[in-house]
Amino acid sequence: MKNKNNMTKNKKILITGGLGFLGSYTIEKYKSKGYDITIIDNLSTNTIDISDPICDGCNVIIKDILDHKWNIDDKFDMIIHLASPVGPAGILQHSGKMAGYILDDTYWAIEGAQLYNCPLIFISTSEIYGYREEAVMLQEHEYKLLVGDFEVRNEYSMAKLLGEIVISNTAKISNLKYQIIRPFNISGARQLPDAGFVLPRFVTQALAGEDITVFGDGEQVRAFTYVEDIIDGIYLTSIHDKNDIWNVGNPVNKVSINYLANRVKELTNSKSDIIHIDPKTIYGPLYAEAWDKIPDPKKIQTELDWQVTKTVDEIILDVINFWKADNLKIKK
Q: What is the distance between the alpha carbons of residues 151 and 199, in angstroms, rounded to a whole number?
């Protein structure tokens, strides 16, 4: 029997949004498995540049994916679709247009997967589950609940959910092969605070001696999952041969935002004060906090032997070490 790693030699994959936070780790993972990688990215939310050593040996295309015309001669063996508006603050600028962006890109990715008869790996979001009265363990089959006003955050989550529906319904009437991944609260080194991600914001504030700004009462519950654990989940699902949907997240890392702020302060030995503010004073009236959500990853753990590796403290230290590196500039 051939070794699985050898079986992937010279296989070609396309990674959309490959220069982003999640994309950079995806490149590293699939490189290690022997894939030939093509990246397409419009540099709207990139965390690495084309000159980064992570991109060595990759074919990098700098353009919007809708401007890239499919060519049958490319013959990709897999499409990993990461490209998307991202972040609780980053999505706000796309209000009213985001659903179109997400769905148009999804249809484009489906077209490519059908052309090459290859799997489409669609990165969705845990936000598709919507509102719950209290934080509960969410399995893949749970109801998806839209509650409250038609906020920008709802536009994002509903567009991702509709993307899932379009993919699964296309597969019912065609030969489309797919995997849908719903990641929960990804964090780790290279994640930037600009789009509103909480852990890099706390860490950069603490290292700079600035106030650590907690939104609202700070009792929001999050289950932080190490970025490389998410990538392992993406990889395991991508080599699975049955169309399916997967939660990828670490329920053991369930903490409040107040807890996170205090641990960041302690682990950085910072003199910063922890203060509570209204996020709308920073990001404007369109900003909305995510609902509390806790993953139940039993399915991917039992069927694909996915495992988590890092505790909350280890993830915090990973982010601290990234921002403390000499060649990095603390961003506000």
A: 24
How many other CB atoms are there within 10 angstroms of residue 240's CB atom? 16
CA distance 331 to 323: 9
pLDDT at 94 over 90: no
Distance CA 253, CA 226 (A): 10
CB under 8 A, 24+ apart: contacts of 201-206: 202/260, 202/261, 202/264, 203/264, 203/268, 203/316, 203/319, 203/320, 203/323, 204/323, 204/330, 204/331, 204/332, 205/272, 206/264, 206/265, 206/268, 206/270, 206/272
Q: Which distant-in-sequence residues (6+ apart) come within 8 Å of 184 by Cβ?
A: 126, 223, 225, 247, 248, 249, 250, 293, 294, 295
> Which range has the worst mean pLDDT, 84-98, 109-123, 173-187, 309-323?
84-98
Across residues 83-94, what is the average pLDDT? Answer: 87
* Dihedral over alpha carbons 206, 210, 211, 215 (to 10 degrees): -70
**Kind plus residue range of the DSSP H or E element containing 98:** helix 98-116
pLDDT score of 330 more than 50: no
> Is there a contact between 146 and 155 (Cβ–Cβ < 8 Å)?
no
Return the structure tokens found at 83: 């490209």
The per-residue DSSP string of 273-331 comes to PEEEE-THHHH-TT--PPPP-EE--HHHHHHH-------HHHHHHHHHHHHHSTT----
Tokens of 158: 């509903």
Q: What is the pLDDT of residue 20?
A: 95
Contact in structure between 294 and 223 (CB atoms under 8 Å): yes
User: Is residue 120 helix, strand or coil?
Assistant: strand
Q: Cβ(121)–Cβ(29) under 8 Å?
A: no
Of the chain, the percentage scoring pLDDT greater than 90 comes to 81
C-alpha to C-alpha distance for 191 and 46, rounded to whole angstroms: 10
Q: What is the pLDDT of residue 35?
A: 97
Helix, strand, or coil (residue 236) = helix
- Contacts of residue 88, defined as CB under 8 A and 6 or more positions apart, other chains included, come to 153, 195, 196, 197, 287, 288, 289, 290
Q: Which two tokens stand for residue 44?
A: 């709207």
